[in-house]
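Q: Structure for this?
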Amino acid sequence: QKEVEQNSGPLSVPEGAIASLNCTYSDRGSQSFFWYRQYSGKSPELIMSIYSNGDKEDGRFTAQLNKASQYVSLLIRDSQPSDSATYLCAVDDYKLSFGAGTTVTVRA
Amino acid sequence: DTAVSQTPKYLVTQMGNDKSIKCEQNLGHDTMYWYKQDSKKFLKIMFSYNNKELIINETVPNRFSPKSPDKAHLNLHINSLELGDSAVYFCASSQDEGNEQFFGPGTRLTVL
């Protein structure tokens, strides 16, 4: 079983819609959870971190964590063409383990 | 000011050669990392150093040797390069283990 699994993409959404990204992880002891955005040919860029159960909002981004279900998600509201990128879920136990990424395309 | 920098940005070399990639961070972080991102875009940790000490050494061939001369620098030396080493190598740093990590621009290594 992979340590971190993300919903398979690619995900295509119209401009202005909500993009929903999901991630599950296998290690119940994980304490830190991150979402990174990676544009093609660029390095991963941290967009959200979440450490406790519940929701965390930052601008158009909302991260949700449910440790009991070993589930973390990212919602992108009012999606813009500039949000088109690959989104990587990362979970920290003793090291940062990344999911394979979900590629999001926002259609203008 | 670049927070995490790497040199070179591109590296094209022949099989069997030895090459090095350098990384520097000016964030004052204690922990630095090397990651490999393969052609399928999967990002995997190779090494982690905390205050110049090796703390994570994933299953990486002995041909890869990291060196941390001080806590702001983490270099990666690769001996006897193979075709399968072709990938993008990212350096990253964090304040401490478990904290948010910040990535450098990456080094695209192509082995011919």
